[in-house]
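note to self: the first set is below, dont mix up w the second
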Amino acid sequence: MPRWRALPEELDPLVGEFTEQLRRLVERSGLRLGAVADRTGYSKTSWERYLNGRLLPPLGAAEALAEVTGADVGHLSTMWELAERSWSRSELRHDVTMEAVRVAQARAALGEFGPSAARPEPVRSEPLCQEAPPRPGVVRTVHAEEAPAPRVPSVPRSPRPPDYRAKAIPVGQPPRRRVALFVTGVVGALLIVAAAALLLGSGGDGKRKGATAPAAPASVSASADLPTGVKCAGESCAGKDPEAMGCGGNRATTAGSATVGTSYVEVRYSEVCRAAWGRITQAASGDAVRINARPSGSAPGRTEAGRVGATPGHAADGYTPMVTVSAPDQATACATLLSGRRGCTAPR
């Protein structure tokens, strides 16, 4: 019987429960991890990560383990879906926390190099003249006009600013030249007034005739509303790499899946990008995957293809470019293996 390590404390409870269920299945089967790897098609190193809570296994791995151990595939798939949602939420919270930490560090670094506030030096006033103490037994009455006034330190006056107007038009300039400059200024002012009148007049006519200002392109307004890191949405994502455009990772979910031989093919759908793509895992070099988008309304269907390019004989994965869809059930992914086996996904 394998000796399991303690699960990480920060692991989500649903993910931890799913991992414990996988451990129980392996223990009941009496198989070692090497045998589990041989029968499921996933490496021993991958199963060590899955069973120690360091990585959430793909649905294909969980279904393969259920078939090997005789467990109910449907019940285990349901537990996997709940764990996958919790795993995605945990990764999103971790990304938000790390972004907040980086922003705080950047603000602190900028504050260290910012200009220091100058401290005003205190103004020292000259001491007032002190009178000699009165003689004992003599009371002196000081009237208001006799009270010494405090001395105010004199403030040097700033020099008078130069008269730039005198430099602009010298006094000794000939009268004709000054008249020409004046006429030029008047003509320029009249031209500006005429241009403003034309602009205002055209704007008024446009309003009376029902003219409206041209609207901004849809792609510009759409990109302004996208989350940070997402570079396309809708038609602008067609034919592009989902990972490079920021549509993969925790922004995508599995909309359909199938097991073809020892390979696992699925439809990945991103709601924020409104696009889908096909992905194949645990495949061999040369295995192909394609994504088919069914036509909807006036929009024609589209097909994209991808191929695994890893070292032959080793498990690898691959994915296709994206196709534009309005719903996750409008796309189907199919795999064609070098062994001749074929299979397509079924929508969930």
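second set (the one i keep forgetting abt)
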Amino acid sequence: MNKALTRRILWGLATTLLALVSSATPALERTVPSTADHKRFEELQGPFDSGPDVTEACLGCHTEAADQLQATTHWTWEYLHPETRQLLGKRHVVNSFCGSVASNEPFCTSCHTGYGWKDMRQEPPIANNRVDCLVCHDTTGDYWKSPTGAGHPAYELLDPADEGARQPPDLARVAQHIGPSDKQNCGSCHFYGGGDDGVKHGDLDSSLINAPLSLDVHMSANGADLACADCHTTSAHSVSGSRYLATARDTQGIDVPGHTDFSRASCESCHGVEPHGSTKLNEHVDQVACQSCHIPEFARGGVATRTWWDWSTAGRLGEDGEPLKIRDEDGNLEPDYA
């Protein structure tokens, strides 16, 4: 059997499976239920005074988890480019859109996968209990970090005078309801990078959590119902995919055992290198990115994304001396005041 025919067969199987998942009633379960009920673990009954206290309890069983995470870019925020030998990553690169992490650590590191990293000139904390297990594994949706807490969750009301203020997370309850990472976990940081929903990435915002089929056929519950980790595959807590060494085009095609480059899944990983029924369209694949035709616009899920940010007008103060935060009729921060 030649390679072209093999790829067509595999592609047909992949698209058939997607169709079955899309039409299944009820929807197929994404994950196999855990063999452990964390509500029954004595170590997780609490109460817990802090996030590091929860991590101490987790590490009693998951003995290697902290060491694994602390070896990843999610922890170090740096990336040594294997070709240019440049030392890159959030710690070292000035972000032309949001500015520099340095001097803004308490705010920026509220999205770090750890607790208490306050100085980018120093290495991240080395103690294993500084790893934040809950931010990636919470299934309640109630775990949240303080906006300026350098990675710590809120331990008390941030504004006691505000009757509608969000309650601090119940750390024991969250610890007893952990599971595989899902869209909500990844989105808690990646949807809100830059300080608000959809500000930094036109293709990443909260509309993906319950995405309609018209928005994202892959993440929609009516489509493939994939989570981020289904394509950004993970080994030993290291999540595949790099913005600094992206794969422009996958020439290997459908990933099957023994036929994969062990990187982030690409379009070709599921759809093959000849995804269309038309020879003419397949000729385009050699030169034209899939996104050129299949993602004709961004920020189309109802959440606006910022395309212009004039830093010379930002940071204006109100009469009370505090920064102005003026939102438009849709609830988006006005760029001149962000």
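remember for set 2: The two ends are 59 Å apart (CA to CA).
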